[in-house]
Amino acid sequence: MISVEDWALIRRLVADWVPDARGIPRRRAARVVLFDPSGRVLLALGHDRHRPGRHWWFTIGGGVEAGEAPREAACRELREETGIRIALDALEGPVLHRRAVFDFSEVTARQEEWFFLARTRSTVLDRSGWTADERDVVDGQRWWDLAELASEAERTEVFPRELPSLARGWRAGWDGRLVEISEF
Q1: Count of CB atoms within 10 A of residue 78's CB?
Q2: Rounded distance between C-alpha atoms, residue 165 and residue 161, angstroms
Q3: I need a surface site. Which of 22, 29, 98, 131 has the fewest CB within 10 A?
């Protein structure tokens, strides 16, 4: 049985999501594949409160707000979730467009995501911009060496699933190609 607190969290998490024709909450999101000077990529570790043993790594990012372009959302989310500021024109891409259906906190949701590449000199992270909900379901952030990430992806879910191999190609620079992924 879902507690009152859990229902409140679920309602907050999907409040800005719009139901599709089948009633499935959906939203547009923007994400950043952020590389440090050593070629490591930054990921966040999340968990599902309803399945305590389920954890996954994912890129920094979140919902595109009304009137906001995905590139703007990517910069805003990066600043809020890491404290790292990137200029709009410093983002490469979009490099990936992903459509996915996933479950989280007892809700099946649909998300359309635009991924951008960015590079930073600073590896110092600031969580002061995190929302209460992010503090509740995000366990931390880590800079990953790509070989270590590929090994981790064999044990723990990484989203998008193709990230370890895609990031190897993007580490040196973007080739101008938009990758399309559908995970339904």
Answers
A1: 27
A2: 9
A3: 22
Tens of pLDDT along 1-42? 445 565 455 555 555 667 777 777 788 999 999 999 999 999
Rounded CA-CA distance 77/129 in Å is: 9
CB 2 within 8 A of CB 106: yes
Phi, psi for 170 (deg, rounded to 5): -80, -20
Distance CA 99, CA 59 (A): 15
The answer to whether residue 45 scores a pLDDT higher than 50 is yes
Contact between 40 and 145 (Cβ < 8 Å): yes
Give the number of other Cβ atoms within 10 Å of residue 141's Cβ: 16
CB 55 within 8 A of CB 156: yes
CA–CA distance, 98 with 2 (Å, rounded to integer): 30
Pair 181, 96: CB distance under 8 Å: yes
H-helix segments, 14-142: 70-82, 132-137
